[in-house]
Amino acid sequence: MVYVKYDNGFYGVYSSSPISKGLIVYGMSPTGTHDKPTRTSIQIDESVHIEDSVGRYINHACNPTVRIDGLSVIAVRDIKTDEEITFNYMENESIMANPFKCSCCGKWIGGKDFEKDYKKRLAILDELTELSQEMGLYDELKTEK
Ligand SMILES: [Zn+2]
């Protein structure tokens, strides 16, 4: 079984008991489905995005503890009690409603298609951000009266 915990401003899903690799950690029961992603949906098929009361709180990790297979949340390695349940959003989602920069590697997590279409633009965006930081534009703006 799993439980949802609010910690340090973030929700997360954790294991309430040890789970062996390959076993089902949690079975999702959709409270709604969409043909487009929302901020909390999980993509389970080409144009099927489901809402699940627990699934919505599962965080992303590039090196996750589970994978999503249909409605099943499956352990990809042995999971200890109180360990966080995470899956790699890039493996499921085509395009995400809220792309973000991964906290572990700094890469953009926006879905498979997002990466394809926006890679170039994001590279430019990153360059511009760095450049303006180097030039002290951010500090200048802050001190401007
Ligand atoms: Zn990462």
What does this molecule look like?
With 145 residues, this protein is of the alpha+beta class. The chain has one domain (2-143): SET domain (Beta-clip-like, Beta Complex). 23% of the residues lie in helices and 31% in strands. It has 3 helices and 12 strands, in the order E-E-E-E-E-E-E-E-E-E-H-E-E-H-H. The chain has helices at 89-92, 112-134, 137-143, and strands at 2-7, 10-15, 24-27, 32-34, 42-45, 48-51, 59-60, 66-69, 72-75, 84-87, 100-101, 108-109. It has a 4-stranded mixed sheet, with no helix packed on it. A 3-stranded antiparallel sheet has the order 3-9-8, with no helix packed on it. Strands 4-6-5 form a 3-stranded antiparallel sheet, with no helix packed on it. Strand 5 (42-45) and strand 6 (48-51) form a beta hairpin. The protein is globular. The termini are far apart. The model has no long low-confidence stretch (mean pLDDT 89). It binds zinc ion.
Q: Would you count the extended β strands for me?
A: 12
Which class in CATH terms?
Answer: Mainly Beta
- Integer-rounded radius of gyration: 18 Å
* Beta-strand residue percentage: 25-35%
The CATH architecture designation is Beta Complex
Largest sheet: 4 strands, mixed
Q: Bound small molecules, which ones?
A: zinc ion
Helix/strand structural class: alpha+beta
The N- to C-terminal Cα distance equals 55 Å
Q: Which fold name is given in CATH as the topology?
A: Beta-clip-like
| Structural domain count | 1
Number of helices: 3
Give the strand line-up of the largest sheet.
1-2-10-7
| Quaternary organisation of the protein chains | single chain
- As residue ranges, the low-confidence spans are none
